[in-house]
Amino acid sequence: MTFLKTIAGAVALTVLAAAPAFAQYPDRAINLIVPWGAGGGTDATGRIIATLLEKELGQPINVINRTGGGGIVGHTEISYAEPDGYTLGVITTELSMYHWTGVSPLSFADYEPLALFNADPEAVFVRADGPDIMELLAEVKANPGSIKASGANLGGMAHLGWAGVLVTNDIAPDAAPWVPSEGSAASLQLLASGAISVVATTLPDARPMVDAGEVKPLIVAATERVASAPDVPTAEEALGNKWSAYAWRGIAAPKSLPDDVKMVLTDALNKVVTSDEFVEFMKQRNFGIDYRDAAGFEAFMTDADASIGKALQAVGLAK
Amino acid sequence: MEAFAEAAGLVFNFETLATIFLAAVFGMLVGAIPGLTATMATALLVPITFYMPPIPAIAAIISCTAMAITAGDLPGALLRIPGTPASAAYVEDSYRLAQKGKAGLAIGISVMSSSLGGLFGFLFLLFTAPILAKAALGFSSFEYFWLALLGLSCAALISSGGMIKGALALMIGLFIAQIGLDPLTATPRFTFGVVELMGGISFIPVMIGMFAVAEIMRSGRRAIADVPQIKLSNPFGGTLSTIWKYRKNQVRGSVIGALLGALPGVGGDLAAWITYALAKRTSKTPEKFGTGHPEGLVEAGATNNAALSAAWIPAMVFGIPGDAVTAIAVGVLVMKGMDPGPTLMTLNPQNFYAVMIVFAIANVLMLPLGWVAAKSARWIFEVPRALLNAAVLLFCIVGSYSINNSMFGVMLMLGAGLLAFVLESRMIAIAPIILGIVLGPLVETNFTTSMMIADGSMLGFFSRPIAAGLGFATMLIWGFTIVHALRGFFGENRSELVPKTEE
């Protein structure tokens, strides 16, 4: 009897101890920090996730744009927040770069990954009347410095995407110098106006300009062809050398999040990312879905961190 | 024409019209709250549009944006808190006008010139969109550099305290723009390792601080009610005749606004400053500018909304958004299966025309809503200034906090207010500081980008035909201004020196 009582007591205690945690989280509004400005791709995807997660968790989710410093400000804020599940954040590709380039000691190890939801490969574009990829690389080799490329900031994923194409084809990365810009829109404008010759960016970002007949994609730095642009060959198919560069986005919390809270969040995010509404939204916006759960996301970031470090070293940007 | 009729059917139904109206009221409320911006209003609206059919969704965004930007002129006129960087160009005039007891007229001019300018921009867009978009694509960093430089030169022209003090204020603005990670290579400048400073100094807290907080410090503890307002049954009284009197400014402002607005990234912010300077330059009474004179108000107000409409051209035709608001709108377009691009006009012309009609409705709707706002705004002047100041300060704090959701913005606002208070007591105008902060990064980014493309050769700035033309024009304006200034300087000195040597 005593034994049973003890067991019953232990069970009751466990239930009592566990129940509040399950019943209580989340019992108030959750903040979702987006390290990039309102209107961009990270903001748009962050907001749809917030809307769907709100339905899943039954608590309001406030999207907060903490911009500045190339995403450093917002990323720092997420990692410094109280790990109680009431502050989450969207983390992006740039997180794999800060510590390599020395602008901030932040790395993926400062976060509790919850779910990866998007990855898009970089592609190479020229003006519609421009050369094909072989002619382009031949021109770079023949007249180093004459071809200027752009796409986003210095040492960003777009830059690495282009530098990787050069390096894997035994061309020095400075033979076709990178002109940093505020983003793909500014770079595409430079390309269309004839000021530069090459732009590296993702396929969805350049789509209106491709449809307008102003620019054309040559290759995509991906492991396989992209469903929305089946005519664009991969780097490996076109040049014979493997090269892939993906820009990614995921949801994370500050380090040392309690396990029960993490469970609630990963379950909810699993439902959100695989929901019809989310899939439809991403399809309409031409964003690629790459869903990985917490463990998968952690493994993905570990790999990305190493390969981006190597690429940054190759182009001489790693400290 | 068939497409146009179909488009009308898409817009003129209860659901769409109700959405336009509600979004306009929402935009008006957010825009009229000092410190809250059009970008914020639009971003808040996006999750709601997820659940709407395409045309109402786009209509909501368009009417909310247009209204929020125009409503931003209300706190400008009443409390000297400009709503956008563009409205900082003419806030001094509208505020002084309200201080003379003509708040209704100040708001009336802002709303009506905006509405007319916006309608002009819409007509312009309707007929020239494809051509204008194609022309805008020909602009590279070389051309942008000259345009931004031209915009900067306006500071010296519009400054009320004279050219030297205007240039000085501009330099302060340019310095503030330097703080943060440099835009191209991300090298930290003047950040002293502070993470908050790495993001740079955002202009909204600075703008709120410099205009509103400085005014609070000046008007201080005045316990009597503010300026008595001229009682009129129609707060817009005299607006039409004023605009008719300055019809030339209204038309010129709209044309320049529509042309510059089509250039992604520069248009909106730059255009109103350029036309305000132009109005002052060509005015018969330039000395009245900045003292509550409607001439610049008419021209810059028209420019502002014409540019706003035109900014949609590159966004819709090439998916290149010029600012945060159009970027959000492009996102909504794509999400609703109306991908920006030339196909928007060829495959589904009825959608394109529907968007155009919404523009027109939003700009017309501005008049009645603006009238109601002007009518109800009068109570503000019946409150003692000391009490009003407490409320204004509260809004200032909320507004600057909400930019990055941090106390840093509030500190920044207070610091900027103190600086402006000291500068203005020395007769140094603060509008050029704001211009410096807004245009500094544009000048710098386009200069370094161009230098990288041209391999460091200055001749690159003259190697493209449009760039060369803009370059020569800028240098000509500068040359004239410098020669004029030197002549004045030596002339003055001589007349002053001669008697002195005789003594």
UniProtKB/TrEMBL annotation, chain A:
Indicate the secretion signal residues.
1-23
Ligase keyword on record: no
The lineage's top-level taxon is Bacteria
- What are the entry keywords? Signal
**SUPFAM superfamilies from the UniProt entry:** Periplasmic binding protein-like II (SSF53850)
Family stated for the protein in its record: Belongs to the UPF0065 (bug) family.
This protein is called: Tripartite tricarboxylate transporter substrate binding protein
UniProtKB/TrEMBL annotation, chain B:
The protein's superkingdom reads Bacteria
Residue ranges of domain DUF112 in the record: 17-435
Query: Pfam families in the record, alphabetically?
Result: TctA (PF01970)
Keywords noted in UniProt: Membrane, Transmembrane, Transmembrane helix
Membrane-crossing segments per the record: 103-132, 144-177, 197-214, 255-279, 352-374, 386-401, 407-423, 430-454, 466-486
| PANTHER family reported for this sequence | TRICARBOXYLIC TRANSPORT PROTEIN (PTHR35342:SF5)
This protein's name: Tripartite tricarboxylate transporter permease
Its taxonomic placement starts with:
Bacteria, Pseudomonadati, Pseudomonadota, Alphaproteobacteria, Hyphomicrobiales
